[in-house]
């Protein structure tokens, strides 16, 4: 979010009075007379302005002595979109904390990943969000636990360790301090049976509007046979995580401003990481209003934005898989790239012990692709070299392809690989690295869309026009791609 929004008291208070969902997650409202902090959409009676303070994060409100509201569930609020646009130290730290890095590696481990000292990291976080890394991690644990208590029937002891608490005592003390009641107090109604440990159903919230149809269509056209599918408005796929593997299903629930995530993991230790990846996959932390405001200033894009409110950028749950898909898609059709990816899965992917419908394999790992013989699969020699170079870079040289890394450095590393040019790097940055300003200026479909709208298609002209779309050029790209669906049926 814009870190200065909490300094505009009148704007924030108007949002609270109108329960404006566009501001959900951008700030939290603390009420001095009750000692409670809430989301802007809280259904409780609006407090008088003189009794209100605004905070940029739930952790900052808790550090000031406020307890989380038990009506509006601050733990379910969408994430702040500001950290999507930014790729600086604080933004990367917040993403890593959300993934649970402090629980496994501590503050020193987090600082090491960011190549700074723990003291410097603490100072930067204090300046930006009002609290240090330990407080942020503590709030994340409490919010995860509350979400699981409220939405699942898992035992409280299991929830404590999934959420990242080191002990039951720490769990109880934190929940008491955060919510002013013990964890057991939230179990006042029976939960829907979750069919055994490892199987869960969770609701992940977003800011409306949300064009789920366009998102599901995009995934359906690119679904890799054996690994993913879109059936009856539901996205399903196999997934491999650091400590577990399994299957996920995501179904939009438009009327509740949420998606329903059903998951079956071999080990719930990766739950936090999976939730964050699913949020990224469906771009649930986007702020459609802010994006539309910028893009609609261009008369060229305004009709497209108006026609598809809430268009999202398809993300990725596995950056390596997405990068392989990008290389396979160079200068061929979407269907052709999908066919090539399916061949890799069939011959090199690990089969599921028990196929689940059309889901039969896990996507091949970088280690497998790095040593595989890729001849005879319909791949050009150039694609084979590019895939093997990418696989070796990830498997042996530490190349990471996710939202927590330094984007500029990673793009530089990608461009050094044979067969990876600006288009491929931009596509990976857009979908795997979460860069909302990534812009594949040389993309043929993008040029075709611009040509239909009467804009010059020279590279210089495209680059110049795109400057007014910043920092949302990736969204502008998807709006332009979507304008072609009525003509060609593909992007």
Overall description:
It is globular, with a radius of gyration of 23 Å. 46% of the residues lie in helices and 12% in strands. Residues 486-491 have low confidence and may be disordered. The protein is of the alpha+beta class. A hairpin with a 4-residue loop joins strand 7 (234-240) and strand 8 (245-253).
**Measured on Cα atoms, how large is the radius of gyration?**
23 Å
What is the CATH topology of the largest domain? Endonuclease III, domain 1
The amount of helix comes to 40-55%
Q: What would CATH call the class of the largest domain?
A: Mainly Alpha
Total domain units:
4
* Secondary structural class: alpha+beta
Distance between the termini: 31 Å
Would you count the extended β strands for me?
Answer: 11
Organism: Thermosporothrix hazakensis
GO cellular component, one term: cytoplasm
GO molecular function: alkylated DNA binding; DNA-3-methyladenine glycosylase activity; DNA-7-methylguanine glycosylase activity; DNA-binding transcription factor activity; methyltransferase activity; sequence-specific DNA binding; zinc ion binding
GO biological process, one term: DNA alkylation repair
Task: Summarize the topology.
Layout: H1 9-18, E1 28-31, E2 36-38, E3 52-55, H2 58-63, E4 67-68, H3 82-85, H4 89-98, H5 101-113, H6 118-129, H7 133-151, H8 156-162, H9 168-179, E5 199-205, H10 212-222, E6 228-231, E7 234-240, E8 245-253, E9 258-265, H11 271-281, H12 288-295, H13 302-307, H14 319-328, H15 334-348, E10 350-356, E11 359-362, H16 366-371, H17 381-396, H18 407-415, H19 422-431, H20 444-452, H21 459-466, H22 473-482, H23 485-488
Parallel strand pairs: 2-4
Antiparallel strand pairs: 1-2, 1-3, 5-9, 6-7, 7-8, 8-9, 10-11
Helix pairs in contact: 4-5, 4-7, 7-8, 7-9, 14-15, 14-17, 14-19, 18-19
